[in-house]
Design brief:
This protein has four helices and no strands. The chain has about 60 residues and is an all-alpha fold. It has one domain.
């Protein structure tokens, strides 16, 4: 329900909101404990690293 309402309010933020809701579903279900643990630790670290590299690669080096 939150994903649908959030998608109606901010359609461009829907992938981020869907990912957050998927993480909540995995954690609360308790069925996939290894995947939940990996997504909280290792996968989060790799995604943070790749996100930092991609943002840094697109930045402009002009000084004012």
């Amino acid at each position: 329900m939150v994903t649908v309402v959030g998608g109606l309010i901010a359609p461009k933020g829907l992938p981020l909101l869907g990912t957050i809701m998927l993480g909540n579903l995995m954690r609360e279900s308790g069925v996939v404990t290894r995947l939940t643990r990996a997504s909280e630790n290792e996968i989060a670290n790799v995604v943070t690293l790749l996100l930092g590299i991609s943002i840094g690669a697109t930045m402009d080096g002009l000084c004012f």
